[in-house]
Please model this.
Amino acid sequence: MSDRERADAVLEHVAVLAFLYYPGIEVDDPSYSLTDDIDWCLARLGEVSDVARERMRALFARAITDPTATREELFTALVELDGLLAVDHHE
Model:
């Protein structure tokens, strides 16, 4: 799986979970677990450092529960993680 495919797969997983999430889901569905949802997304990352994994865990949690506030930060973190974009400092 290429870096781009991996990032796309992670974003797709997070988007689906964010779409399904709502405050109070734990009350309505006692079997629901945000931790399980985060783990499902982490599985798509593959081999990353423990530091990166913990950073992404926190971003996934925020992106699932508040996607509008977190989507840019998550995308940027995935780009940095996979080196998808070459930084060009031309002005």
